[in-house]
Description:
By secondary structure, the chain is α+β, with helices and mostly antiparallel strands. It has helices spanning about 5-15, 20-30, 30-40, 50-55, 60-65, 120-125, and strands spanning about 85-95, 110-115. It has 6 helices and 2 strands; from the N terminus they run αααααββα.
Amino acid sequence: MKKETLSDRLNKAMELAGMSQGALAKAxxxxxxxxxxLTSGNARGSTKIVEIANALGVNSEWLSxxxxxxxxxxxxxxxxxxxxxxxxxxxxxxxxxxxxxVINREFVEILRSVEYSQDDARHMFDGRKx
Length: 130
């Protein structure tokens, strides 16, 4: 069984809090590229774990090590992963340009996500296949 990493825990907490990388950066006072490095697994830790945990409403010890309850109130969500019967659509923060002058970022930020049930998706897309 794969051991859960800081990146896994941070992504789970962000999803449950409904926070994008940019929103977490603002709420915690941590630079957004640092949040990206942590969520992508390119960094093993940070001196700002307490600030990040506070912004997400989770225990800093759980976020850092995986030990203890996830939430500050001592609870751990039973099902943090989305149902397999739903479709998740990410709304991305993108920039485009037809000429010189725009530098694309190293990553694409997810502003928010919307989930639809199979029936809702089928109705919205008139039963078209993906």
